[in-house]
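Renewal narrative, Specific Aim 1. Our central claim is that a sequence can be written position by position from structural information alone. The example that follows is taken directly from our test logs and has not been curated for this report. It begins with the structure tokens describing the chain, in the order in which they were read.
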């Protein structure tokens, strides 16, 4: 099959980069080129921003209810195409189709429905004085730039797009160059259901060219970026120089902390899910597993058996639990960490090698889920973000030690704590230096709650009212009575 040709979506129309240059979009499960995308430059970004700027008056002229209705229509259209979108997402990322059907696409739909409801019900304040009244107007920022990574492509793009549009902004999105197809589908959908031309634009291409040009563009009033910490530092420095509003959702090295009083089977299942969902490529994955010493051996034996039993292979397979990693280059990086772990004194407890798979997956970027013990919690393997199916496991003796190990990294995105002691759950959750803590669960998501990290995991919060606040600016009006 010849590769699909994906265009930039600018002013409601799909078109190539001005230079005519393209990039290949490779399916990591097979190595096949499934699409080409525009290799956009600053010129294409400028076109998209101009389209977004010229749509501002039309879009902010729609009432809140009309914009919310459009978001609901987008959700309905995504839902009608759920199966097709799940296949595209799997093709681009290598993830199991079943995972995309169960999580990525349903949550993308939920994002549009949720923010449609959120703006319908949003309120602003009034502050009375003896002789005057203040009231707060909430206005869209204008045109916002949304930059997203490859691990949850549509899920994260809709997490930003839905509140940005619902609050009246126009958007220029720059999805990851490795996962363009569902962003292109979203752009078509928004236009098909009646989004005015220029309200939602997508520019495909590389980060240092297309992404950087978007962050630099003087007419882009806000940047919401999700991606790696190193890239986030560049984006942050660039956006701050021109005082653009900024939200950064960055990397993680999250701890799963299991106390001896936890329900062992639930904790093993939770740790396996936290470690290896989406091939370990979720920013929230629990890649450091801390287990209280009395249950360490038992826990590790059970977990290793579970991990060894995970089904890796054909992303379309009904029983597949892990598909391919995002790319061969990324698998090389992850394998480099498995070698480093062994140099650092670690022992492979499960996985550690590539699975042997039949054609057409024999050349895919697959890796068996890997569990490593025997490492110092301070070593590189246990402190650097690997972003793959690799979990290191470490024993601890006291609550204080667990907290100290958990907090001993530069990241602070999320953690999960497994215990049946309620007081301990409160104490440990409070002491962990992270933006989010799950107790006896992992990745339970309520779209109203604050989402984001501390330390090198990011700046700012998104979700519910936090997103509405990020994509708007409040203006106070004071009237003398
Ligand atoms: P990345 O930082 O390499 O790329 C993210 C996006 O930024 C891509 O679209 C890329 O093209 C673009 N980009 C690259 N350089 C740029 C520049 N100079 N200016 C503007 N844009 C630029 O990240 P990735 O490899 O795609 O994704 C994996 C990372 O994302 C991991 O570190 C993971 O933890 C993180 N992540 C964080 C969250 C969160 O919510 N905190 C969620 C998902 C992923």
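The sequence written for that structure reads:
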């Amino acid at each position: 099959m010849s590769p699909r040709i994906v265009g930039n979506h600018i002013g409601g129309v799909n078109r190539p980069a001005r230079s005519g240059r393209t990039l290949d979009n490779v399916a990591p499960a097979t190595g096949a080129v499934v699409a080409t995308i525009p290799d956009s430059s600053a010129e294409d970004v400028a076109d998209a921003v101009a389209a977004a700027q010229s749509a501002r008056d039309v879009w902010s002229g729609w009432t809140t209810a009309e914009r919310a209705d459009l978001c609901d229509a987008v959700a309905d259209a995504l839902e009608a195409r759920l199966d097709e979108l799940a296949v595209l997402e799997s093709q681009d990322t290598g993830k199991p189709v079943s995972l995309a059907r169960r999580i990525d696409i349903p949550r993308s739909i939920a994002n549009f429905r949720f923010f449609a409801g959120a703006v319908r019900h949003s309120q602003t304040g009034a502050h009375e004085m003896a002789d005057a009244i203040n009231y707060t107007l909430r206005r869209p920022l204008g045109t916002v730039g949304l930059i997203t990574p490859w691990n949850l492509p549509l899920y994260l793009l809709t997490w930003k797009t839905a509140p940005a549009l619902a609050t009246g902004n126009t958007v220029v999105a720059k999805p990851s160059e490795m996962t363009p197809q569902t962003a292109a589908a979203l752009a078509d959908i928004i236009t098909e259901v009646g989004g005015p031309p220029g309200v939602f634009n997508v520019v495909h291409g590389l980060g240092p060219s297309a992404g950087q040009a978007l962050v630099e563009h003087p007419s882009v009033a806000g940047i919401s970026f999700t991606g790696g910490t190193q890239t986030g530092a560049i984006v942050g420095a660039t956006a701050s120089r021109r005082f653009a509003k900024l939200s950064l959702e960055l990397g993680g090295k999250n701890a799963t902390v299991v106390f001896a009083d936890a329900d062992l089977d639930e904790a093993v299942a939770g740790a396996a899910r936290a470690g290896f969902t989406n091939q370990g490529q979720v920013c929230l994955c629990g890649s450091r597993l801390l287990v209280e010493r009395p249950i360490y051996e038992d826990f590790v034996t059970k977990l290793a058996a579970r991990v060894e039993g995970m089904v890796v292979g054909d992303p379309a397979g009904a029983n597949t639990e892990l598909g391919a990693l995002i790319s061969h280059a990324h698998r090389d990086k992850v394998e480099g960490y498995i070698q480093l772990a062994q140099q650092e004194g670690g022992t492979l407890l499960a996985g550690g090698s590539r699975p042997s798979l039949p054609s057409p997956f024999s050349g895919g970027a697959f890796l068996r889920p890997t569990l490593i013990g025997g490492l110092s919690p301070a070593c590189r393997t246990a402190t650097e973000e690997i972003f793959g199916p690799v979990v290191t496991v470490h024993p601890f003796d006291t609550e204080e030690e667990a907290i100290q190990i958990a907090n001993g990294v530069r990241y602070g995105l999320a953690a999960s704590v497994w215990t049946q002691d309620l007081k301990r759950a409160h104490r440990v959750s409070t002491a962990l230096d992270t933006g989010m803590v799950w107790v006896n669960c992992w990745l339970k998501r309520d779209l109203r709650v604050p989402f984001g990290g501390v330390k090198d995991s990011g700046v700012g919060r998104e979700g519910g009212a936090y997103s509405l606040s990020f994509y708007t600016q409040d203006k106070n009006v004071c009237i003398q009575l």
